[in-house]
Structure prediction request, 382 residues.
Amino acid sequence: MKFTLHNTDGLARRGTIETPRGEIRTPAFMPVGTAATVKAMYPDQVRDLGADIVLGNTYHLMLRPGAEEVAALGGLQDFMQWDGPILTDSGGFQVMSLSKLAKMSEDGVRFQSHIDGKSYMLTPERSIEIQTLLGANIRMVLDECTPFPATHAQAEKSMHLSMRWAGRSKAAFQHYDSGPDETGLSNALFGIVQGGVYEDLRHQSAAELEQIGFDGYAVGGLAVGEGQEQMLKVLDFTTPVLPQDRPRYLMGVGTPDDLVEAVARGIDMFDCVMPTRAGRHGTAYTWRGKVNIRNARHAADPRPLDERSDCPASHQYSRAYLHHLHRCGEYLGAMLLSWHNLAFYQELMAAMRAAIEAGEFETFRAEFKRQQSEGDIPPRQE
Prediction:
């Protein structure tokens, strides 16, 4: 993997990540394809919206259909018909949040599947092996996502365990990965900074990860209940101590405002289920904030969600029609709003890249906040 930083504007950065499967323009938002699919979307649609990379989930894919099964079918790209780069998370967060009777130890996590109760052991080595079998171009170390709230002592113990696992993950990556391809590019392994909301622990974690050496650095353990103000405070004292010449990834975040504020603090990559999850439940994200399409005021509204957008879901269908679909529980309603939301997120990332390149990111940031605060404007009543 190769990371090139093209422009900076304050702490905001615009760059390119080169992988064996193609380039990723940063800042980048990665649509989440948990079980080898971005929900309610065709792979070609996701690519056409401007997404350079998608995310797959180790936990879900190891349970079904199984990593070895995916490998036998050509890896995730062939399996899901996605021709670009794929990042896989390590599965650690899902083990602790979804599985039954998860038990943490120095070796890893023993857990029971939330699907059928079958017992599994996920170690740093097995997580990397699974991600290798899946064919991920960017792989994540296995870590413990420190819960919130946590005392300093609890966060410190959790962070040290994650650092030991990071070292084992690096050794496993060197064992399983095949190295550079014919272009000279290789797959990547990212470390994950932990430490809760504590500055000294975040700094210690970042220093230990840099000593191990990774292709990129993620900030984990956020968006777990601490709120945006606390999340941004953690970024304020974490991103400045991360290597300048490596991409920075904020895991599991977030709202459009979260993305803009995190880019302002030097973050390059994001993923979140929010665009598709919100779309399935009738919420659309727009330049003027959130729209609850189930609200009665949209029942006779002929306007599209965004007539300026190139996305058909955004400009071809009336709000009244979208309201009707969601009130009736029609599948198309979830599909169209998911499509619109993913389009908006990619438009937002493209706008931030352009603003950074032009040296106008702070102007963009202020205007974005102004528009969001105005909110969605109802149709004029005659």
